[in-house]
From TrEMBL:
SMART domains assigned: HDc
Protein name in the entry: 5'-deoxynucleotidase HDDC2
GO BP annotation list: deoxyribonucleoside monophosphate catabolic process
Gene Ontology cellular component list: cytoplasm
Length: 209
C-alpha cells in the first residue's frame, strides 16, 4: 500500500468518527437518540440544493463548506459554550485539528484547510450563508425533538440574536417559527421541561449544539 493511500485511509477513519459523535447540545439536554455531527453536516449540505439557480452564491462551494465546517470535531469533539472553552481556544484547537487532517490529504488537504479558514473568517457570502444554514439546522432539529419527544426547547427560539439575511434561510426560519407557533397553540404545554446536565464549564453568549 502506498503512503498516500495509507494516509487517506487514516483520514477516512477520522471522518468515520463523525458518524458516531453525538452533538453535545442535545446530549446535555437529555434528548433521546441525539443527532451526530455528520448527520448535522449532511443535512446542511442537502440544504444547498434548495438554492435558486439565479442566486449569486456558489452552490458547490456552499456545499463544500457545509460538509467540512465541523470536520475538526472528529479530533477535538463538539465544543459548545457549556464546555468552559473560550471562543479563541476553541478556534485554536479546531485549527490545529484541521492542520492534522490536512497533512493526511496532501494537495487535497490544502483545499479543505482553505475552505475551513474561509468559513471561520466569515468574510465571503458563501461562508455567511452556510453559517445561517448551521443555525437553521439547529432550530429545525430542536423543533423535531419538541414534536417527537414532547420536550420544551424554547430556549433556542427565545434567543433574538439570530438575523437571517439570505432569502432561503429567511423563508425557512419564518416557516419554522410559524409551524412551531401553530403547534404551541394546539398544546397547552410541552410534556417535559429540559434541564441541562451539570458540566464543569461556564456558559457564554449564544446557543450551540
Amino acid at each position: 500500500m502506498s503512503d498516500t493511500a495509507a494516509n487517506y485511509l487514516t483520514f477516512l477513519g477520522e471522518m468515520g468518527k463523525l458518524k458516531h459523535i453525538k452533538r453535545t447540545g442535545w446530549v446535555l439536554r437529555n434528548v433521546n437518540d441525539p443527532e451526530t455531527i455528520s448527520g448535522h453536516m449532511y443535512r446542511m449540505a442537502v440544504m444547498t440544493f434548495l438554492l435558486e439557480d439565479n442566486n449569486e452564491l456558489n452552490r458547490t462551494r456552499c456545499m463544500e463548506l457545509a460538509l467540512l465546517h465541523d470536520m475538526a470535531e472528529c479530533i477535538v469533539g463538539d465544543l459548545t459554550p457549556y464546555c468552559g472553552v473560550s471562543k479563541e481556544e476553541k478556534h485554536r484547537r479546531e485549527d490545529e485539528a484541521m492542520k492534522t487532517l490536512k497533512s493526511l490529504c496532501h494537495k487535497q488537504g490544502e483545499r479543505m484547510y482553505t475552505l475551513f479558514q474561509e468559513y471561520e473568517s466569515q468574510q465571503t457570502p458563501e461562508a455567511r450563508f452556510v453559517k445561517e444554514l448551521d443555525i437553521i439546522d439547529m432550530l429545525a432539529q430542536a423543533f423535531e425533538y419538541e414534536k417527537s419527544q414532547h420536550v420544551d426547547l424554547s430556549e433556542f427560539f427565545d434567543n433574538n440574536k439570530y438575523t437571517f439575511k439570505f432569502p432561503l434561510t429567511k423563508s425557512l426560519h419564518e416557516e419554522l417559527i410559524s409551524q412551531r407557533n401553530q403547534m404551541s397553540n394546539h398544546e397547552t404545554s410541552f410534556k417535559t421541561n429540559v434541564t441541562i446536565k451539570e458540566t464543569n464549564g461556564t456558559t457564554n453568549d449564544g446557543f450551540q449544539c
